[in-house]
Amino acid sequence: MIYIILFLEFFKVGLFALGGGLAALPFLQELIVKYGWISSEELLNMIAVSESTPGAIGINTATFIGYNTAGIGGGIIATLGLAAPSIIIISLIAHYFKEFNNHPLVKSAFVGIRPAVAGLIASAAFQLSRGQIFHFEKLNADLEIFNVLDLKGFILFLLIFLAIRKFKKHPIIYIITAALIGIIFKF
Asked: What membrane topology does this protein have (predicted)?
């Protein structure tokens, strides 16, 4: 039964997460809330590992969650579930691509899809940052921002964000740098 649930849930993630692996984050967040297969912290760690290893973040995360939930078979089933919609859709698109590529409806659909995907990614980033930078559970009646904001986490976030914008290096550089800073300063 768990194999069927894993396949169907990751099939839905693969079907609706348009825009790549990061677009899957809101759906993965929903899965961990719904089923408790992994914790939010494990999801964050998996994202960090997935960003620094070969392969797509969605596939790596599906494999990890599937494996944690139901062993090797679960990892395989979750990965197949995530990949199946793309395989089906791309096969259909490839068959009809030339006919519909320049159709105004297709172009208009992508104009609408792009900002929606950006919104999904931003929402997931906010959800994931809540436990790492912002601690809303510490908000008291005085609304003191320093009770809510993890200052060290926010400064590290800001430094890495600015470095990415200025230097535009490979993401692994920033991940390793952040990991080393975390080890040195024991975040």
From this structure: Multi-pass membrane protein
How many Å apart are CA 57 and CA 24, to the nearest integer? 9
- The pLDDT value given to residue 96: 78
Q: CA 9, CA 146: separation in Å to the nearest integer?
A: 39
DSSP character string of 42-77 = HHHHHHHHHHHSSS-HHHHHHHHHHHHHHHHHHHHH
pLDDT given at position 147: 65
Q: Say whether pTM exceeds 0.70.
A: no
Angle formed by the axes of helices 40-52 and 57-100, nearest 10°:
70
Q: What is the mean pLDDT of the chain?
A: 83
Q: Is 149 helix (H, G, I), strand (E, B) or coil?
A: strand
Q: Where are the domains of the chain?
A: 1-102
20 is written with which tokens? Answer: 């790549």
Q: What residues form DSSP beta bridges with 149?
A: 134
167 pLDDT more than 90: yes
